[in-house]
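Our consortium's second objective concerns turning raw sequence data into structural hypotheses that experimental partners can test. To show how far this objective has progressed, the report includes one record in full. It was chosen at random from the queue rather than selected for favorable results. The single chain below, 319 residues long, was entered without modification.
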Amino acid sequence: MRIVSLLPSATEIICTLGLEEQLVGVTHECDYPPFVRQLPKVTRTLIPTEASSAEIDRLVRQQLQRGGALYSLDLPVLQALQPDLIVTQALCDVCAVAEDEVRAAACMLPGRPQVVNLEPQTLSEVLAAIRQVGAALGLEQRAQGVIEALSSRIAAVVTRTARLKHRPRVALLEWLDPPFSCGHWNPELVRLAGGIEGLGQEGRPSRTLRWDGVLAWQPEVVFIACCGFSVERTLSELPALQFVPGWQDLPAVRSGRVYVTDGSHYFSRPGPRLVDSLEILAHTLHPEIHPLPNGLPCPVRVNGSDVGIFTGVSERGTS
């Protein structure tokens, strides 16, 4: 079986199922596990990644209004790889090649490869997507074992969260200029981790916000996981928050509970590491009851009153 993955989360699912050697092509964004960076790239972006958040947002909206693509397939590379299976998605127009383009390309390839389309919008649907990929590859039992292990970790977080007496108001932001609420599975992660997310809706897409709407929520914790951005890239965007009227008066800023995490590797990808994301978030909100598993990074804790300054990243605590 020769497999091509057209989204990073699918790449992670395929590798979690132990099929690294059958993975022959990935997207330009696939970077985990690290070895996949060496595989042939079958996509390219039409949006300049070095642009500012505001400029990226403007270009994305412009392309979507025109019905244009944000990512394109490198058809010659795809043809040379001769895949038997292509894993893609139709959940988000911003995140991957359009499903119609993928299916049209598959019809042009020798042997007409099978196309598996993933569209998870909740944590349980992410687990079901693992089962879907496993079924397509004849590995139902292996997929079930992965799901059971992830479900056990989720259940452990839920059990500890049930003991909480206070659940802080949380703003989990997926973009800063303009601000975006979290969406799909992320409001659910906040709830399971022991917080209240008043800006995003479970199972619904993220949405554009106004800063006065964020301020009206008066979050006790601001957790920033910019979609597709590393910690370093997100930190470079933070100084602009100093000019948001009312930012300094937020409870989260006054108490020093503004955090930045890697939105590229966590929270944005509907794959196995969403459970890592849950554990990172739970530890950040309630370090007294939620331990951080070995190997997972704590988010950067920002000095909210001066967002140009941040504290170091601790591997074993955020408090």
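The partners drew two points from this record. The two ends are 47 Å apart (CA to CA). Residues 97 and 107 are 16 Å apart (CA to CA). Both points have been shared with the crystallography group to help prioritize constructs.
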